[in-house]
Amino acid sequence: MSEPAVTPYWHDVPGPPRRGLVASRPVVERLVRATWKVRVHDDHHVPSTGPVILASNHVGILDGPLLCAVARRPVHAIVKKEMFRGAVGRALRGMGQIPVDRRATDPAAVKAALAVLHRGDALAIYPEGARGAGDFTVIKSGVAYLALCTGAPVVPVVCLGTRLSGASIGSVPPARSPVDLVFGPPVTLPRTDWPRRQDVVREQAQWLQKWLVGHLRYACELTGRGLPGPAARPEPEPGPVVTP
Questions:
Q1: Nearest to 76 by CA among 30, 49, 116
Q2: PANTHER family from the entry (predicted)?
Q3: Per-residue pLDDT at 193
Q4: Domain for residue 148, yes or no?
Q5: What separation in angstroms does the CA of 150 have from each of 51, 120, 164, 180?
Q6: What is the C-alpha separation between 9 and 16, in angstroms, rounded?
Q7: CA separation for the pair 214, 224 (Å, rounded)
Q8: Could you tell me if residue 231 is inside a domain?
Q9: How far apart are CA 197 and CA 169, in angstroms?
Q10: How far is CA 229 from CA 7, 58, 110, 134, in A?
Q11: Got the DSSP string for 206-238?
């Protein structure tokens, strides 16, 4: 794979480990599928090789484990740094997940994400920045920035059924409940060399937001399901994930 035409400022990091992710993935998949009725739709849209960004909506705590468990490829996800504490934090790091400070620009998270894509792996990002309604009404600029840096295709993902209506953001659906994961056709933004202007990143993020909303409508029509609505205890609104 040829090297992405980006500024080399991130080449000093190896990126998150891949071995633990590959080893743990079958265990997580068995656990998820044994607990809920998982229905995966259109996962053929995920390229079998090469860098790819999976841009998912975010309604509940189950979204991350579900996507990482059943996607066609091992997935490194960007996860809020508050999760990286104690045994859970050690497990997440061992599984190659990436901590991010959502309330400030986080160069370490940006470098780790770029390293994942540079080596041709899959990266999951939640453009909304926090669990909530999951409707893509507002998204952060991080997904557009990473796509512009690397030229990696962006595959839209919609999770449905991972939180019940009116339930809190930390809840999970009852055992054996159906949960749906719907993938959409990839789109590629024009790879842009450094420096990437803020107005260009914002413009591309706005375009992606409309595109993600369109995929959400398709996913709801396909499955006959809707979103759960606002969370009972919404998280504080985070700051930008990344800025150019």
A1: 116
A2: 1-ACYL-SN-GLYCEROL-3-PHOSPHATE ACYLTRANSFERASE
A3: 77
A4: yes
A5: 8, 10, 36, 29
A6: 17
A7: 15
A8: no
A9: 35
A10: 41, 11, 30, 8
A11: HHHHHHHHHHHHHHHHHHT-----S-SSPPPPP
Residue among 153, 155, 204, 133 at smallest CA distance from 41: 155
Each residue's pLDDT, cut to its tens digit, for the chain (244 residues) gives 333 344 445 566 778 999 999 999 999 999 999 999 999 999 999 999 999 999 999 999 999 999 999 999 999 999 988 888 999 889 999 999 999 987 877 888 999 999 999 999 999 999 999 999 999 999 999 999 999 999 999 999 999 999 999 898 889 999 999 999 999 999 999 888 776 778 889 999 999 999 999 999 999 999 999 999 987 654 444 444 433 3
Q: How many domains does the chain have?
A: 1
* Distance of alpha carbon 92 from the chain centroid: 15
* Angle at which helices 63-70 and 19-35 cross, to 10°: 110
Placement of tokens 């979103």 in the chain: 227
Detail the DSSP E strand segments found in 46-100: 52-56, 75-80, 98-100
- Owner of token pair 């202007």: 197
CATH number, domain with residue 103: 3.40.1130.10
Specify the length of the chain in residues.
244
Q: Is 45 part of any domain?
A: yes
